[in-house]
Amino acid sequence: MKARILVTSAAGNTGIPTTLGLLEKGYKVRAFVRQRDARSLRLEEAGAELFVGDMFSYRDMRNALKEVQRAYVCPPPGPNTAHFASVFVTAARESQLEHVVTLSQWLSAHDHLASTTREAWLLDKMIAALPNTTHTINEVGFFAENYFGGLAAAAQLGMLAMPLGSPELKGNAPPSNEDIAAVSVACLADPKTHAGHRYRPTGPTLLSNNEIAGIIGKALGRTVTYTDAPEWMFLKAMKADGINPTMMTQFRLYMHEYQRGTFAVNAPNDVVRTVTGQEPESFETIAKRVVHNNPEAVRSARNWITTVTGMLRILLTSTPSVPAIEQAGDHVLITDGVYANGSEDWASLHSPT
Ligand SMILES: NC(=O)c1ccc[n+]([C@@H]2O[C@H](COP(=O)([O-])OP(=O)(O)OC[C@H]3O[C@@H](n4cnc5c(N)ncnc54)[C@H](OP(=O)(O)O)[C@@H]3O)[C@@H](O)[C@H]2O)c1
Asked: Is the pLDDT of residue 353 over 70?
């Protein structure tokens, strides 16, 4: 009989294609969602059993894992991954899971400057310590999805303003949500082959910031120009967007990693092809799909006014102070923290072989 698999964060970027991919392969899938909405109903219609609950609640996680043999563990983005890890691992130990696939981070390291990255590392170590459970780590870098946060500005104003370094910097071979999910699905379907492995799926091509803007422009049918946005502007934009203050400080560190070329280390690679048997999707394909599915991409007077109003709101927002956020939130700061590509341990795990 086929295993029952729990997909956490099931209504999210990678949770949706992971759930759909497992259902297509004939698995029974329990989809852990926060609420019933259009996203979760789509999963239910495709055949998933919905579990509505709070992933930080031990009671909910234990119930979600009843009669489940395998799980896709995708921590909700936010400052409490270690808490999530403790809840999941405690419940998973009771359920005697056979196999777990975690969505971890390319940057994952015990000594990283970002506490969310150290917590992702801790989650993987805690799962590795489960006595009767095997696991695979899907260590993804900078999602292709991230570039589309600025889709409205690209569509209406022809600009892609992100703090990713110089226009010529080839900083990423962006993977699609679908390919990230396809790697997880393959690992959940065949634990024997994939147990004990860590995979870092990438897209097929290492792209410069100019090339990324050009491809988004082509999908939109207009010229889009990349601008290396200053950090203060990025912080203002995140604040205006209502991003959790702790996450603002973490995303800032991830942008530093991008500028340092960390996501380009040994990228692109052949993980997607090797693990799934399919070619990874190009950024052109991803951009066309996002533009096709997104009403923000339509050029109209109404969308233009909304975008310009949003830009004005960003300019009028006060610049958040990173030290003040760290102090107010009592952040766990380590004295010997480093960027990933300044860490010997990290570099040794990112060798091309
Ligand atoms: N973006 C990147 O470049 C990148 C790179 C490497 C690793 N990652 C990791 O990827 C993970 C995020 O993956 P993703 O993008 O697939 O997820 P996502 O799209 O952010 O989805 C997260 C889902 O979890 C739900 N959720 C949040 N808190 C919950 C709670 N307490 N109880 C129940 N559900 C809850 C959210 O519900 P609502 O939608 O209703 O809020 C959402 O559907 C993070 O751990 C991040 O560190 C991201």
From this structure: no
DSSP-based three-state secondary structure for 315: helix
Give residue 99 CA to ligand 1 midpoint distance, Å. 21
SS3 content of the chain, % helix, strand, coil (to 5): 50, 15, 35
* Reported confidence tier of residue 352, pLDDT bands at 50, 70, 90: low
C-alpha 117, offset from chain centre:
12
For position 341, what pLDDT does the model report? 84
Alpha carbon of 334 to those of 3, 44, 102: distances in Å? Answer: 41, 43, 25
Question: Which ligand 1 atom is at minimum distance from the Cα of 81?
Answer: 45
Environment class of 321 (CB within 10 Å of its CB; exposed 0-12, middle 13-18, buried 19+): exposed
As a whole number, the mean pLDDT across the chain is 96
Q: How far is the centre of ligand 1, averaged over its atoms, from the C-alpha of 35 (Å)?
A: 14
- Residue having the nearest C-alpha atom to atom 37 of ligand 1: 34
How far is residue 54's CA from residue 33's CA, in Å, rounded to a whole number? 8
Is residue 103 in contact with ligand 1, taking CB distance under 6 Å?
yes
Average pLDDT value for residue range 45-58: 98
Tens of pLDDT, residue by residue over 162-210, are 999 999 999 999 999 999 999 999 999 999 999 999 999 999 999 999 9
Residue 74: CA atoms inside 13 Å, Cβ hemisphere, count?
A: 25
Domains of the chain: 4-144+175-199 (3.40.50.720), 146-172+205-264+283-335 (3.90.25.10)
Atom of ligand 1 nearest to the CA of 143: 3
| The model's pTM | 0.96
